[in-house]
Amino acid sequence: MRYSKLFGRTRHNPPCDADSVNAKLLTQAGFVEKLAAGIYNFLPLGQRVLTKVCNIIREEMNAVEGQEILMPSLHPVDIWETTGRRKTMDEILYKTRASGDKEFVFGPSHEEVVTPLVAKYIQSYKDLPLSVYQIQTKFRDEPRAKSGLLRGREFGMKDMYSFHTDEADLDKYYEVVKDAYLKVFERCGLTAYVIEASGGAFSDKFSHEFSVETPAGEDTIILCEKCGTAQNLEIAEGCSACVCGKDCGNKCCDEKELPMEEVKIERGFSVAENAKAHNVPDAKILKTVVYEVEDGGLIGIVIRGDLNVSDVKLERYLKRRLRPATPEALKKVGLVQGYISPVNIPEEIGISFVADNSIKGVKNFVTGANKFGLDYKNVNVGTDFIVKEFADLVEVKTGFKCPKCHTALSEIKAVEGGNIFKLGTKFANAFGMNFADNDGKLKPVVMGCYGIGTTRLVGTIVEAKHDEKGIIWPKSVAPYLVHLISLGNDKDVLNDAEDLYKKLNKEGIEVLFDDREATAGVKLNDADLIGIPLRIVISKRTLESKSVEWKERTNAESEIVPLASLVKKIKEFQK
């Protein structure tokens, strides 16, 4: 491709509204062009990268016996009502109405389409297992469309769905696809962590995410480098330090239980202000976080003051949706914000309590007395208040210990590049998708689903592969392998560059030829910005030795290579 004919050019400066590395570099280098928040045009360079990413994914899905199909983006709303996700996913659904006032949604996912489709072709166990996939566009009304291609409202995705006779067969295939996903990321030049995460709106089981480390990541990953455990912050498990700040399992704080006292106090509402007023560490504050539970009133979660509640863990524990209680909701039932506790709480308030495991073994807490300006000190669980249920509800953070090997856990920021779910029979039951087993009995089909954001993966590669000069494309997904540059207006240089361009094309080598009448600085800077793996420069100086300047994008130094051996060297580089 001649740069002079290329649709889409580099810019001197990145767009002022770009809020991430991938948004800045992809736009400035001429790969994408923003239409609206979370909606991008892919220009020729970007489309070439996207096509290569999709082809890698396609090859790996075919290798695990996935069969490619294509399903509609426009879905009748009634199929979403069948599964109940018309309500649970309403906030992100784009909706429209067709003639006859029939309502449709633009698909954010395709379980509702693929399940009744496949049901038409499954009759007995002999038709299973089966796996189908598509590479298609999804639509989600993201309230915070940001970070370029990482969080879009319209985006490309490969979604695959598998169908099985039982959980054991699903488990087996699930591991096969997990390995295939790791191959996809490796072939795209990335190292992905396999993260255990919540199933979210797609499954009530745990899922696995494939996350790539980058400061721009929206996810926090909790890692144990010793045993290799990696979990999403939302559901991560870990052992917290003692209230003394050490990893002693609360054994060093072997205090005697003191009699509970009610004290008048002037303080702020925060844990820090409370701890300062009573001259105790944050961990000795007994904190109660109140939530409104869907169709279930209020619930108070009792936890150490230095720790936070994981909303995802709590939702999984309660098996209901919830949200933090508003000040209005607290006031309505007679709770005093900043002074709530399970100690001597009036029965008429009607709130239940669940305790995080972190309060076990801790003695002589400080907590509110359910009245403004009054606290209790020397509060002890089992003596001064009773909690019927304990659970792991804490949000793990740096400083916690791995529950398997007790090594200190660390946090990294990462981009989620893909995820896989075990759906079980949730969607099969909704649509009546059954099969006749070998004993003649009808049983529901067991399903799994597997997604990779194709456009998101392009953005992820840029986030992980760049420097201060621009993008650094891995050879497998680069728009071109070679960036050929001619410097100066010498006729011999121009003629030899033209001949080399034609020769490389004839040899099947992908090449972007910068044939513009531009300065050396502009051409070389643009080459770094665009990030093609190999830069070949022809100038009057190099032709004096019948050579070219060879520079790989990942190397700081260049070298001189004879023209006679150039094609052979490029083909070796291409491998």
Molecular structure report:
By secondary structure, this protein is an alpha+beta fold. It has three domains: 44-72 and 112-236 and 412-463, BirA Bifunctional Protein, domain 2; 261-391, YbaK/aminoacyl-tRNA synthetase-associated domain (YbaK protein, Alpha-Beta Complex); 482-574, Anticodon-binding domain (Rossmann fold). Helices cover 26% and strands 29% of the residues. It contains 15 helices and 31 strands. The strands form eight sheets. Strands 3, 7, 8, 9, 10, 11, 12, 21 and 24 form a nine-stranded mixed beta sheet that branches. Strands 16-14-15-17-20 form a five-stranded mixed beta sheet, covered by helices on one side. The protein has a five-stranded mixed beta sheet with strand order 28-27-29-30-31, with helices on both faces. Helix 1 (21-28) packs across helix 11 and helix 2 (44-63) runs antiparallel to helix 6. The longest helix has 21 residues, at 167-187. The chain is globular, with a radius of gyration of 30 Å. The model has no long low-confidence stretch (mean pLDDT 92).
Write a compact overview of the structure shown:
The protein is α+β, with helices and mostly antiparallel strands and 575 residues long.
- Supply Rg: 30 Å
Question: How many extended strands?
Answer: 31
Derived from helix and strand composition plus strand pairing, the structural class reads alpha+beta
**What coarse outline follows from CA principal-axis ratios?**
globular
Kindly provide the name of the CATH class of the largest domain: Alpha Beta
Strand content: 25-35%
Number of domains: 3
Unreliable runs:
none
Under CATH, the topology of the largest domain can be stated as: BirA Bifunctional Protein, domain 2
Helical proportion?
Answer: 25-40%
Average pLDDT: 92
Task: Give a quick account of the main beta sheet: strands, pairing sense, barrel closure.
Answer: 9 strands, mixed
Instruction: Give the CATH superfamily of the largest domain.
Output: Bira Bifunctional Protein, Domain 2
